[in-house]
What does this fold into?
Amino acid sequence: MHHLDLRRLILLLTITATLLTFLNSFHASYQTLHRQLIAQTLEANRAYAAKLAHSTDNFLQAAQQQLAYSAGLLPGVLDREERLDAEVARLKEQTGTFNGIFVVNTDGRVLATAPSGLGLAGSVLKTREAQAALNARQPRISAPYVGARGHLLVFLSQPIFARDGRYLGYVGGAIHLGENDGSLQALLGDHYYKDGSQLYVVDQNRHRIHHQNPSQIGEVVTGNPAVEAVLRGEEGSRQLLDSKGVDMLAGYAPVASTGWGVVAQRPSAATLAALDGLMLEILLNALLFFVPMLAAIWWLSKLIVRPLRQLAITARHWEFSAAQEQIRQVRAWYFEAEQLKLAMLGGLALLHGKLGRLNQENITDPLTGLVNRRGQQLALERWQAQRRPFAVITLDIDHFKQVNDTYGHDIGDQVLQHVSQLMDSVSRSSDLACRSGGEEFALLLPEASLEAAAQVAERLRGLISHTQSPTGSFVTISAGIAHWPDSATSVPAVLKLADEALYRAKRDGRNRIVVAG
It folds into this structure.
């Protein structure tokens, strides 16, 4: 069965997590931008509608003020045709607000008009709006209606009173709606977006009285929540479907003086068209970041997996003698790999130990029962691989050749056994007593400092020098002490330092210990 290796698993997990994070961020960015664009357009259309509604209200109030000023001048000139014509002409031409000016007396008779070519001077106006203006006797703005010449217009009137308070008639002005020659049309204009956006005005009867498409002027708008809200006097914005089923973002505001409603709306699709470009830009920027990150992940995964892969490959060839050296050469640069490496080395050492117990004679000195030189080397290699510090005491029996020469080799062998037994007596269970060869011995003390080793060596020296040997007298020892890794970084160097310290002890008179360094 094929298994994914650790590197592929790391890459798969990292790339999957990165992609999921990116997709989540991309989706969240899309939703956020979507909401922001919708909210910004709604607010922009509301502000636009409110501005135009306020401008329209100011425009109508200014028109009423013009009529009111003229109404204050007219009582003294109603019977003076030339002055009357001059005043209505001035009122008509002064600001261009009105398309027509009328001065009407209490009988409904037109006393003067501007422009004069209307042909209504001297006639009696009997239309409903004319009668309403005459009967109102106060400033009035009519509902939009179609005039005698077929124009959709709104009629503003201002009453004329004599100085004694008598009602003399009114002065009125007609403003065309939805036509190029209308001043209100020029004020409202079209929606500033030319992407299907709309700007229109409805009167209190839901008729469109202004629209950028003249064919829609006069239509009744039904089922539009924005129109219903604005005719209730509300200002705001909302998303809705227009009469053609197009999703729109509408802002609306009422005209206070007339009860009309201004509606500015933009297709949602046009608003969100920019979103695709923004998201594409986000995607490209993310890719510029993602590609180098993917390369970094690939490199890091290789770096992380390398020591584990080397250890795994070596584990497949555990039985070979070179396995321990191969494991030791693995560069385990992070904690888990280092611990696994040490565990494998410890396992190999344990295996070697078990094998050694099956063949104990290979590492045991037959005379003293101590570990021989080969066993000593294996122990030192194991401790070094495990990064286990240790102290080494190298020692030999002073003048041992004289013992052999004087008492014979049998007694000499007993002396060697005597020293080895005393070495065992001062050793811990974890210490390793070794016979290096001849009268040379070594005592290995794991996890011991130089000071502790010096104390052990001095205790051993004193014990041997005060304990009767098989010769019937006392023998002495000289010892040298060193520590790994405090004394040197390599085991051979530590052993050499201990030997050199031993030689100094002999040169200095024997029966003494010397600490390396």
Q: What stands out?
A: Residues 6-73 form the longest helix (68 residues). The longest strand covers residues 152-161. The mean pLDDT is 86.
